[in-house]
Amino acid sequence: MITARAHTNIALLKYWGKKDENLxxxxxxxxxxxxxxxxxxxxxxxxxxxxxxxxxxxxxxxIGPGLKRVTRVLDLIRAKSxxxxxxxxxxxxxxxMAAGLASSSSAFxxxxxxxxxxxxxxxxxxxxxxxxxxxxGSASRSIFGGFVQWHAGFDNQSSYAESIQCPVxxxxxxxxxxxxxxxxxxxxxxxxxxxxxxxPFFPAWVKSAQADVKPIKNAILNKNLASLGELAEQxxxxxxxxxxxxxxxxxxxxxxxxxxxNTVRNLRKQGVECYSTVDAGPNVKIICASxxxxxxITRLAAIVGQDRLVVCKPGPGVTYL
Length: 321
Ligand code: PMV
Prior knowledge:
The protein is of the alpha+beta class and about 325 residues long. It has helices at about 65-80, 105-120, 125-135, 140, 190-200, 200-220, 225-245, 255-270, 295-305; strands spanning about 1-15, 20, 25, 30-45, 55, 60, 85-95, 145-150, 160-165, 175, 275-280, 285-290, 310, 320. It has two domains: about 1-170, Ribosomal Protein S5, domain 2 (2-Layer Sandwich), CATH 3.30.230; about 175-310, Alpha-Beta Plaits, CATH 3.30.70.890.
């Protein structure tokens, strides 16, 4: 039995729309930061005595679309290693599931790494990234630590993530504001399909996201927090604009999401360098230097309470336990 640990990542340049639904190829490159606080541990064992795959996530048997995606990754690994053994998978998330905190990113990265190794495969991180992508697009990035770029690519082999900067040797951290950790109503898969099919803003989103790649990468390499934060916040707002333009229109924002976004803008006006990003859920993540954490936390705690704020630092890539 092999156990792997992968950490969640938060995109500063979002993946939002698939140009190939089967291969999970995104329209544009994306860039993320892997976090230290949220992770998934997954153990995999292939066993000839099993009748079928048994998947347990947080002590519950996995069913539905999640199970299909796990099976897809396991099947790819079985094909690659030339065996057809059923797997026993045991996974525990140290992250609130499906609340826009990207639990799928850590889950499928840990699964790909553990299952490949349990099959006796020795794969590069790039190959693991390609495998993880088949479970969840964002998982391709969680194979790596620190700042990561997922190249959109044009086929299975050209769509993979790679490290931009790891370790991250400058002061950047991310404060997670847990507004609602319940399962969201519109999954990222459904949300992406809806905007790509119906939102007139979608083509503009793809164009502006791809144009953001170089500037965001440069901001990271130059360790320029203000530039990185500004670009990341704009990118997130443009992603969410596509949902307002969809038919039927929808949003992941909740009243507290807007309250936090406003507070961050106001803090900025007062000279505190902090910036927001929001994924396919109501929770806001705030990018700032740790030297500003106290100022940011004091203001946010007044809205949501201190217990719903989690300070995260850059985290590592996939490891084996
Ligand atoms: O990997 P998925 O299918 O859960 O999609 C993730 C989409 C966003 O979190 C909204 C953006 C991203 O790049 O992580």
